[in-house]
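Pipeline run #58 for the internal structure catalog. This entry was flagged by the ingest filter as a single-chain record with no existing model, so it goes straight to prediction. Upstream metadata was stripped on purpose; only the residue string is passed forward. Reviewer on rotation: M.T. Logging verbosity set to normal.
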Amino acid sequence: AITYDEFLKVGKDRLPQDLFRDATHHIASLDLKAELIIAGFISLAPEIYITDESGKVRAMEDFAVIGEGSYLAHSSLMRRGQVSARSLEHTLYNVYEAKRYAEAVGSVGPSTTILVISEGNAMRFVGEAASNHLAELYKKYGPRETPSELHFPSVFDE
């Protein structure tokens, strides 16, 4: 039992080659069981990064999504044309809609908390009134249920 730092410094010299190789492979294939979005401003420029379950980090443009519903959230944001130049209001709605859309995945819960990070890394939560307004906008603009029966014009009849 040695620390990871010690393993990197002296492991190759102290351990048999096959044991060191197997240990290195095992460490590289660890599943961290966590994904993260890391966001903020560096010299007034917005930066967004994600980490995956293996610990790999990727820089993102415009937005980032993680989790089991990320594929649905990503498609919603793409459909809405979400880019970093969008207004705060449109961005808030698009993010809210994407999160609600992702709730189609059973493991994505209904609770939504939105935190806005501004230049200088100032942070503020979206309050209850704004959250209620987002819910109303979603009722108006969000995905709609189709009726139980759909009828087509006779153009399909031969």
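catalog note: Helices lie at 4-14, 17-28, 70-79, 88-102, 128-141.
catalog note: The two ends are 77 Å apart (CA to CA).
status: ready for reviewer M.T.
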